[in-house]
């Protein structure tokens, strides 16, 4: 009996403790994936918010990107409402997919933020039926990073390479290869990254505004596929497979330029001995009407879970830091190379500073100008499916077994199969 | 009959198995039946629509699924026989007690089977890059003049996968054969030798027939393993920025990778993924049955 009462008392105390615990500080749980990028940025944001509202705890969980997606999918699909994180990071290409696959799961933030202050293309991709569901975070605005020394050696004047077309790019690539023996760019001929850059720069995608497939009848896509083939045949591209080999190709100095999202700066700067040798130019444009010399690749945004416990605190946190703190955006730009999409931040000092690594060029001033030029498009729900379908027919395009028209028709069939339409 | 019936009612018996039975139902039977139920819906996240057999009809026409099966079949037909034959030869050689450091070789060949699937695949991906170890080695030997595009060509990507799989699984199968060889009495070989049978005759007329049950076992296990291939193609195909296709031109797409993509990479369609899984199980069952029937003993 004595034992029993001891157990009873212990239980009672435990219950009391847990009730007491529940009334304690709200804890905001955040899921994100990059320990060199969005995790430390969120930690910085949390530090800053604690100064405004000390009565909050943060639990910033770092997982692999695929794991975040897998976990989010399974938790939301199972319908449980406990143990949800307050805030989750979602890649922009996936935003529409999650928002429409799990209606009601994400908090409607339309009335909480002034979305006119964010880059328009970022707001567009998180809007469903006129309601906005996220807080735009980093931009994947693209640039053409080039080696000043190699270009000079090949007699190329960067001033004359502003706003050129891809034809010109290949032409100067040949010159450069002839004179310096270096490859112009590097890439995986079966990766859809460049494809996304090309399409987005012309305001086009695999789908139209209403989400209908536009593949076989898409002139921009035809040009883009043609460019993939030309690029491969021209021999100016060093072919690599996988991220590490790609980064190694420009860190080792084998390649004279890189065309991709601004987030690559961290990797380019990893080769410290190349300081001062790099520069940035606007990306080439496709020879189609409406194409611009600016585009976007990747980028992600924060979303708040509707059924999470401390939803309102989480929203306030995002509001106070991500839509108010100009200084925060300067810090993450300098420390992490994160180009935010909250436009008022771009008047800050870090955006106008000259970078010695890039030959004292004010790179971020350029990037923020280009960011505003990126066309706003609807990514739709099936970007990855479309990528897979297109890249699936690329071998036949490369070896000439199929013409581009035939290949795109085949890709469209395949895509319809994948998404069941 | 009476005894079994009595046993059936025995309360203690039930008490002993009830816990295991409960877990089995919860974690095995329930998911099996629930996924069958789920396969009659097409889902996008929590948005469900009942389609009956629609998913299965869609599957027959799904060029991605057919491609995944084709890829797997090619690997199955080429890789499994090579691997099993290699394992058999190695087992026979290492079964010979006269060989020095025989234990060392056995361990060395078995060791790959202990490594993590992801780790070894990542390692292979590094070795088989265009500037990688393998290409440099082959060029320095003068065997090739230009680097082979191992992971940048649909054909070579499959070859790389086959190399990787063979490296990882040969030792594993060899152990089964070694165990089987220990059970063959040495008297049979002695008798055969006296009758004038040379080594190769002994191998084909004694070793293979007596190892038949184990050969069948390993071939069925390898078939199932190949059809469920996931880690290797997934990691070999990890792309630059987007990881658009599974290997060049989807040449490494397997049914399991496809199921994963349908659930987690594409718009989440758990219903369709369940249907694909069911068809995969059916194919495994049919192939195993055929193997048992054609190579197997009649009894």
Automatic annotation (TrEMBL), chain B:
<feature type="transmembrane region" description="Helical">
    <location>
        <begin position="210"/>
        <end position="230"/>
    </location>
</feature>
<keyword id="KW-0812">Transmembrane</keyword>
<dbReference type="InterPro" id="IPR000515">
    <property type="entry name" value="MetI-like"/>
</dbReference>
<protein>
    <submittedName>
        <fullName>Binding-protein-dependent transport systems inner membrane component</fullName>
    </submittedName>
</protein>
<comment type="similarity">
    <text>Belongs to the binding-protein-dependent transport system permease family.</text>
</comment>
<dbReference type="Pfam" id="PF00528">
    <property type="entry name" value="BPD_transp_1"/>
</dbReference>
<feature type="transmembrane region" description="Helical">
    <location>
        <begin position="12"/>
        <end position="33"/>
    </location>
</feature>
<keyword id="KW-1133">Transmembrane helix</keyword>
<keyword id="KW-1003">Cell membrane</keyword>
<dbReference type="GO" id="GO:0005886">
    <property type="term" value="C:plasma membrane"/>
</dbReference>
<feature type="transmembrane region" description="Helical">
    <location>
        <begin position="270"/>
        <end position="290"/>
    </location>
</feature>
<keyword id="KW-0813">Transport</keyword>
<keyword id="KW-0472">Membrane</keyword>
<dbReference type="GO" id="GO:0055085">
    <property type="term" value="P:transmembrane transport"/>
</dbReference>
<feature type="domain" description="ABC transmembrane type-1">
    <location>
        <begin position="69"/>
        <end position="291"/>
    </location>
</feature>
<feature type="transmembrane region" description="Helical">
    <location>
        <begin position="73"/>
        <end position="95"/>
    </location>
</feature>
<dbReference type="InterPro" id="IPR051393">
    <property type="entry name" value="ABC_transporter_permease"/>
</dbReference>
<feature type="transmembrane region" description="Helical">
    <location>
        <begin position="107"/>
        <end position="128"/>
    </location>
</feature>
<dbReference type="InterPro" id="IPR035906">
    <property type="entry name" value="MetI-like_sf"/>
</dbReference>
